[in-house]
What we know:
The termini are far apart. It contains three helices and three strands. By secondary structure, it is an alpha+beta fold. The chain has helices at 16-23, 27-34, 53-62; strands spanning 13-14, 42-45, 48-52. It has a three-stranded antiparallel β-sheet with strand order 1-3-2.
Amino acid sequence: MKKREVPIWHKTNLTLEEAAAYSNIGLHKLREITDDEDCNFVLWIGNKRLIKREPFDKYLSNAYSL
């Protein structure tokens, strides 16, 4: 059976690598942004962090600079 891959823009949560590809922001900068306790678009699962795509889109649309 062939495994189907879901496009990034349809995923609810993104890995850091997917979020970097999706937003053209580097991994180091994404880690720096998501280390902040007030970051509302990061989801921690143990030591793994996922990026909630819709709140991340809103954050990017409201950001002047990163």
